[in-house]
Design a protein that fits this description.
- By secondary structure, the protein is α/β, with parallel strands linked by helices.
- The chain folds into two domains: 9-269, Rossmann fold (3-Layer(aba) Sandwich); 290-353, Ubiquitin-like (UB roll), CATH 3.10.20.30.
- Helix content is 37%, strand content 20%.
- The strands form three sheets. A six-stranded mixed sheet has the order 2-4-1-5-6-7, sandwiched between helices. A three-stranded mixed sheet has the order 3-9-8, with helices on both faces.
- Mean pLDDT is 90; it is low at 1-5.
């Protein structure tokens, strides 16, 4: 089992003129990349720190010297008009740059004068991802014809993928075995990546419900959607906290888009948050839902996982009610768990380990 950092890195893609750079600024507060970037320097990363009241409470209660929230890295890409012609769904030169991302955000315009049919726009961009995967799979199958050894398993799995792609279906909707997923993990299949459709709309439509037919079509493709008034959200960065709160309230929103996006991504990617806390540091960690205490230990440090003895765990709800380690122990709410314990969202954990 491999441990290491679970990143949350997402790239913004889509057709020209849909507001990708405005979405990037709305989420990160950073200016987009000016002009055209070369092949090595086209991506600009921006980090979004996750607003987390639970982490704030732990920091205050323990008097922690440092607070470390979960972060999402969002990538904006400099335009390349030579590669992405007007009306093209996607810049093909971006494909190698997005293979190592955890998720993709496809921007769909729904602001005045730029409305496009949601499902058609998604299918257009996804078609480019599917075609790239088809080409990669076909080339690999050709190479396998020249190789010797036990390659029947890989050939069979790739042929299954190729048939699915030929039908215009993204690989995220193809059921693969755990063995096949492991075998193809290094391929970086683009149409297997989680995708959120970011609907870039006007402020008065930021809370609008999606049409049932559109929702059903996205669900069938394994996608989720998120509404964002990018121009409006960009204006929030010019205001102080009070001004932001007032403007959001007037728009019928309770949080800025960057916080709502994190929630949407967590739900879509099947993630939870657990915590380590004490006087030196209050730290929030992301973890896949259903992961074990041993995997949580690996998120903190690989040495802690290797020397795992047991985990001392208390739920956030119990700690919030009792408000101290001593009272948690006195009430019998501190649990000793083994390496196979399934972590729950909000767990506060202390790992006992040997070096």
């Amino acid at each position: 089992m491999g441990f290491g950092v679970l990143t949350l890195k997402s790239g913004i893609i889509g057709a020209r003129g849909v507001g990708k750079s405005t979405v990037f600024h709305a989420l990160t507060g950073l200016a987009p990349i000016a002009g055209q970037g070369d092949a090595k320097n086209r991506a600009r990363p921006g980090n979004i720190k996750v607003a987390d009241p639970r982490l704030d409470f732990l920091e205050a209660t323990y008097g922690s010297a440092k607070k470390v929230p979960v972060e999402l890295t969002v990538l904006d890409f400099a335009p390349n008009p030579k590669e992405q012609k007007e009306g093209a769904a996607l810049d093909p030169s971006l494909l190698p740059l997005i293979r190592d991302l955890d998720a993709l955000m496809i921007v769909i315009p729904e602001f005045a004068g730029h409305e496009v049919p949601l499902v058609a726009a998604i299918e257009s961009v996804e078609g480019e991802l599917i075609f790239a995967d088809f080409d990669q799979t076909e080339r690999r199958l050709e190479r396998l014809k020249k190789e010797k050894g036990n390659i029947d398993f890989e050939r069979g799995g790739l042929e299954k993928c190729l048939k699915w792609l030929e039908e215009g279906k993204p690989l995220r909707t193809l059921e693969l075995t755990a063995q096949e997923l492991a075998a193809f993990s290094s391929f970086g299949f683009l149409s297997r990546k989680p995708v959120i459709a970011v609907i870039n709309c006007d402020a008065d439509r930021a809370t609008a419900e999606m049409a049932a037919a559109d929702r059903a079509a996205l669900t069938a493709r394994g996608l989720d959607a998120f509404r964002l008034a990018a121009t409006f959200e960009s204006e929030l960065w010019e205001l102080d906290a009070a001004g932001q709160s007032e403007l959001l309230h007037d728009a019928g929103l309770t949080q800025p888009a960057r916080d709502r996006l994190i929630t949407a991504l967590y739900e879509y990617l099947g993630l939870i948050t657990f915590y380590t806390a004490g006087e030196p540091e209050a730290h929030a960690w992301s973890l896949r839902r259903g992961a074990s205490a041993l995997e949580a230990a690996g998120r903190i440090h690989s040495d802690i996982a290797r020397g795992f003895i047991r985990a001392e765990v208390v739920s956030y709800a119990d700690f919030f009610e009792l408000r101290s380690d001593a009272k948690v122990k006195e009430a019998g709410k501190l649990r000793l768990e083994g390496r196979d314990y399934v972590m729950e969202d909000g767990d506060i954990i202390h790992i006992r380990f040997k070096v």
